[in-house]
Structures are given as C-alpha cells and as structure tokens.
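Hi, here's the filled form for the chain we discussed.

Project: internal
Contact: R.S.
Residues: 101
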Amino acid sequence: MAKVSSIQKNERRKKLVAKYAAKRAELKAILANPETTDEEFFEAQRKLAKLPRNSAKERVRNRCSITGRPRAYLGRFGVSRLTFRELALEGKIPGVTKSSW
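And the returned structure, exactly as it came back:
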C-alpha cells in the first residue's frame, strides 16, 4: 500500500492538470504556430513558465486504483500487476483466466 500522502499529492496534481488544461493548450498552440511573431512567442513562453509545475500532465503518475502502487501499472485495467493477479485469481476480472498448457 502506498503512502496516503503520495496518493493525495497525485490527486492534487490531477486537479491542477484539469484546471489549467485549456490555458496550457492555448499557450502551446501559440508556441507551435510558425506564423507567431517573436514577441508573441516569448510572451506565451513566459506565461507558460509562470503556470504551476504540477499543472503539466507529465507530472501525474499512473497509480493502482486500489492500492496506489506506482510501479507495474497495467493501464488497460487500471491496477498494478499484483492487484491484477489477485483479482484475476478470484475471478473478479471478466474474461481473464489463468493460462495452463
């Protein structure tokens, strides 16, 4: 089980990403546009740098939805490999069976 503080920190990051997503997209569009003047480019760059660091989606960590484990995350199921194995063996994940040959 991950530390509760780590899980909550990640949740705060998710909220900041959602809050600033539109503003970030707008500024990045200005930076990516080749027809932008130098003044507009540097102004957009300055505004983007002033936004909170945790509002960047790259800073959000994928975590297991049950235990909060940050490593070995299976995105298709939203859980870590350990939790996935437990749930699969209990038959709680539909369509997943233990293989044998």
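Let me know if anything looks off before we file it.
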